[in-house]
Write a structure and sequence with these properties.
The chain has nine helices and ten strands. The chain is globular, with a radius of gyration of 18 Å. Strands 6-7-8-3-9-10 form a six-stranded mixed β-sheet, sandwiched between helices. Strands 2-1-4-5 form a four-stranded antiparallel β-sheet, with helices on one face. The protein has one domain: Rossmann fold (3-Layer(aba) Sandwich). A hairpin with a 2-residue loop joins strand 1 (about 1-10) and strand 2 (about 15-25). Helix content is about 40%, strand content about 25%. By secondary structure, the protein is an alpha/beta fold. Helix 3 (about 90-100) packs across helix 4 and helix 3 (about 90-100) packs parallel to helix 5 (about 135-150). The structure holds adenosine-5'-triphosphate (ATP) and magnesium ion.
Amino acid sequence: MIDVKQVGKRFGHFAAVQDLSFRVEAGEVYGLLGENGAGKTTTMRMMATILQPTEGDIEISGFSVRRDPVEVRRRIGILFGGDVGLYNRLTARENIAYFGSLYGLEPARLRERIDILSRMLDMEEFIDRRVGAFSRGMKQKVAIARTLVHDPDVILLDEPSTGLDVTAANIFRRMVSRMQDEGKTILFSSHNMGEINKLCKRVALIHKGRLRFAGTLECLREKFGIVDLDDIFMAVVEGSEN
Ligand SMILES: Nc1ncnc2c1ncn2[C@@H]1O[C@H](COP(=O)(O)OP(=O)(O)OP(=O)(O)O)[C@@H](O)[C@H]1O
Ligand SMILES: [Mg+2]
């Protein structure tokens, strides 16, 4: 469970996130929407205890990011889009294992987790090859596996499908559904409205760091009287100047 409670983040005088509140339940895939610079990554970084909120608090499975950051980190897996930062001279397996060992996983458990993830993400063919020569999509799969190696309850995915082709994006979507069935809490940011539409029932829409909407996609469409998510998005971005 993720409980965002009136959270704010200032960088100097600039408020990147203001008075933000929403809740994501276990077993839910929740979408975080907003244009470039809206505050999505900042919000996820606060959830992962990489950044401290300047106002409010966030609870992850009941633990406060302010008071119990160690407990939070143990329960959270985070994946950022863009440069995934793998060690090129190590194999896919070694990259994932390195992260697993940082989480204190026992060798036997680590082997088991890597086998499961490698099967789930269709990585068996290249799991023992060095990642230096991997394509972007292959690297992204390794990064996804690394995010999930310690079997976290709460999974934060910041534009995770960037660079994935249609097949890999499908594998990814199936994996998200499976994690949802396992009762994981999944927060997902994307600029791809088609993907949001396929994966999420509920979304939060933020604009310039403030919440504009939180609820089901049906409610969102009803509220704006527009069916197409891209059009709703544009209406929010263009319709408000504060
Ligand atoms: N470390 C920082 N110092 C100063 N300003 C920052 C910092 N990190 C983020 N910001 C600012 O906060 C705002 C929100 O940025 P954030 O990265 O959260 O947006 P985003 O919604 O993830 O955008 P995108 O869709 O482009 O990834 C931006 O104006 C950004 O410039
Ligand atoms: Mg971002």
